[in-house]
Write a structure and sequence with these properties.
This protein is an alpha/beta fold. The chain is built from ten helices and seven strands. The protein has a seven-stranded parallel beta sheet with strand order 1-2-3-4-5-6-7, covered by helices on one side. α7 packs across α9.
Length: 278
Amino acid sequence: MMPIMSDMLKTESELYNDTQSYAHLITERHAMVKPHTHHPYQLGASLYMPATRQDIWQVIKRDKLPTINSIIICLEDAVSQQDVELALERLRTLLDTWAEHVNSINAPSKSAKIHAQHPTRPLVFIRPRSPMMLQQLADYTHIDLIDGFVMPKVDMYSLSNWRMACQNLKVDQLLMPTLETAALFNPHHNQELAIAFKEAFSQPVFALRIGGNDLFAALRLRRPKNSIVYDSPIGTLAYQMLGCFVPHGFYLTAPVFEYLDQPTLFMQELNRDVSLGW
């Protein structure tokens, strides 16, 4: 005898977080849409920088790449396992340097023309490797200078661990979960996740990032070089995510475009990004 659909969905929900399901929660707009200093559209095209780099401070104070709107200091796949301790050491040094100059970096410079069009510094996020590393970062001196955190590979299976890891963060630090696991191909899972995001964290969920490359890898595919992502299976998934998460009040960011030697293709994909409200 075939199981009926309600039984299948119930069994599936029980897998996500032991016996806890978020499906019963009402779908009010999350605290992430409360009035805040920043808006997700301020992110622009975020620049990922491995935490091992020694020029991150120059980017923050706009000596380098002065028009960048946001940077993400990466401790995940941009840093090899053998370089993790070096990356963490350089991050601590960066935070100490920032703390020494916090008054000047937060005060607009009247002499710098760049500040007429851009804030005095970009938004700065950190992407840890795991919930355990995020818990470690929460104890760092001056970590409160960071605007927020990008959490990789968040789904219903890992959500409770990320929730625990965020408990020692400041309540005004911004969170950007990344949707990039095979679980995201399940529409029922995504509905549960959208509802769960609204109750999981004390901090605002600033935006949800679509991890295109990992999603391609989950299908044993690579991003096509001669067509925009929206003409691929990940494009189909992106449309589904739009219909799932945006009605719950969340903003999404577009998948990263990596073929910078193809400006025409880039403009085609960028136009589609804009039309979808990314």
